[in-house]
Design goal:
Length: 341
């Protein structure tokens, strides 16, 4: 079998019709231009027989529509984002759209380049972004104002935007409150850079406010910051020092699942038994691993399926409106606490 890619003109020659007619049918405009159903069926059948694959990007440049939605996340290997991507992809497919996924590695410059590529070059009809950026000016550019863009997980507080997020503040407050009610008074929260991200600032604020509720002072030593670019080693180095000090924290609260996994690795490496030390371990985010590991992990579960479905519906709505919406939609979804004690 020839490896030559089938072109529109190949289908036209095989059927002895014009290339223009084939193009109209392939692009779904047969009825619009009065092409008979019988002829349309012949064209589509021949296209399938000849294994014709349309050039999505060429068609997007020509028609202004690619039937693609882009997803930009910090790290697609993070189970939180990969699960959301699964539900997004499923919901978009039901509406005739495909999903294109890119990781930004928490690099704002890389994120901006990808957004410009997808939006300005018409590669995607809309974008869903878990942003690393803190620049309101970037998103206020004229070229992006009418572009169908939905933030997930994170958003820019100073930007009027469409977003679908979990209630990070409430989840963090309730988890910290739960730890305190279990008797913890010296809780170590472990955060990750870049710490300006809305989801993280809200989790930190929820943590602080729960301490305040019980008149427990917040000290700088209650919050440890870890570099996104060196999670495992940074956690290892700093956590070992903390576990050797006296008094030790009576609870550790990681602000995302990567941090939790890194901590569990350190406990395993050291043979450190949290239970014997009368410490509790908790995490914002819940992953399947937590059902099987020791120590038991108290966690905040985010509604990943609902985030994916709502974000897909919202971006499709914006695509349909061609960005001409009257007011931004701000969807905040509740979290739940999973206590494995």
């Amino acid at each position: 079998m020839s490896s030559k890619k089938t072109l529109l003109e190949d289908i036209a020659n095989a059927l002895n019709v014009s290339k223009t007619l084939v193009s109209m049918v392939i692009n779904g405009n047969g009825d619009k231009y009065g092409i008979s159903k019988k002829t349309q069926e012949k064209v589509l059948s021949k296209a399938q027989e000849m294994q014709y694959t349309p050039n999505v990007f060429a068609r997007a440049l020509r028609t202004g529509k690619s039937n693609l939605v882009g997803l930009l996340v910090a790290d697609i290997s993070n189970p939180f984002y990969s699960n959301i991507a699964k539900y997004l992809e499923r919901e978009l497919a039901l509406n005739g759209y495909n999903l294109m996924i890119c990781s930004t590695d928490e690099d704002a410059e890389r994120e901006e380049k990808l957004i410009k590529l997808f939006a300005e070059q018409h590669m995607t009809d809309g974008l869903i972004v878990a942003t690393t950026n803190s620049s309101v000016d970037f998103f206020n550019q004229e070229k992006l104002k009418k572009y169908p863009l939905v933030f997930i997980d994170r958003y820019l507080p100073g930007l009027e935007s469409n977003y679908v997020v979990a209630n990070n503040y409430q989840g963090s407050f309730e988890l910290t409150d739960s730890l305190i009610r279990k008797g913890c008074k010296n809780i170590l929260a472990i955060n990750i850079t870049p710490s300006h991200i809305s989801s993280l600032t809200e989790r930190v604020q929820g943590f602080k406010d729960a301490l305040h509720k019980y008149n427990l002072p917040f000290k700088e030593s209650n919050l440890l910051e870890i570099s996104f670019n060196n999670i495992q080693e940074d956690v290892r180095e700093k956590l070992i020092k903390i576990l050797k000090q006296s008094p030790k924290p009576d609870a550790i609260y990681t602000l995302n699942n990567h941090l939790a996994t890194a901590c569990l690795n350190v406990f395993n490496e050291l043979g450190f038994d949290i239970q014997k030390e009368n410490m509790l371990f908790s995490s914002f985010d819940d992953i399947s691993l937590f059902d099987f590991v020791k120590p038991k992990v108290i966690s905040v579960s985010q509604p990943m399926e609902q985030i994916g479905i709502e974000a897909a519906k919202l971006v499709l709505e914006l695509i349909e409106l061609k960005g001409d919406y009257k007011a931004a939609r701000k969807i905040v979804l509740p979290t739940s606490i999973i206590s494995r004690s």
